[in-house]
Amino acid sequence: MRLSTARRDQVFDAVAHERRSIADLIDSFTPEQLATPSLCGGWDVKTVAAHLVSDFSDGFWGFLASGIRHRNIDKGIDALARRRAQASAAEIADMLRTQADFRLSQPITGPLSGLTDVLVHGADIRIPLGLAHLPDPDHVGWVLDFLTSRTQFGFFPQRRLRGIALHDVDTGRRWGTGKEIRGPGVAVMLAVCGRTVALDRLTGPGVAVLRSRLR
């Protein structure tokens, strides 16, 4: 998606804020909390945080190279996250904090993919630990702009939202046409990204359609 210079700056600031928030959480967690399974299948809380370090430490080309080595991009990203997770929690938190202002803008997807990553993975970390995940509703709206755009790549297949309309009741914003899914913006964001725990917070005829596509 093409963004104005001002909006790009706002997106980068939002990413930096969330990285710092996650760094503070990682610093505060016990070993048991760090080992808690996250909402991101196969990763514990610490590995999710390590993946967010991998985002800027390895980057797009590192992901691509690892994907080629493992003959699968998802397996390549997983391998990099697990390697980064071998660092201590304090080291992971320090990297997130010291590199919070790193301006990540991947080819094709641009800066909004970075905001999507930190907001979705922020929920992956917080929700299993019973912590509130309350990102700025405007930031969630920007993420949904991206997730419903043609430049969305790597988060889910484009066909997932075919024939589905999204309605964020927090802001009144809507995306797409078809059977409606409505609810809090953060729940809409998480559900379309495959976090089934969010489906129970949503209503509308599109929920059953999305649920069937996530099986």
Automatic annotation (TrEMBL):
Pfam families: MDMPI_N. Residues 16-101 form the Mycothiol-dependent maleylpyruvate isomerase metal-binding domain. It comes from the Bacteria. GO terms for molecular function: metal ion binding. InterPro entries: DinB/YfiT-like, Maleyloyr_isom, MDMPI_metal-binding. This is Mycothiol-dependent maleylpyruvate isomerase metal-binding domain-containing protein. It comes from Mycolicibacterium goodii (Mycobacterium goodii).
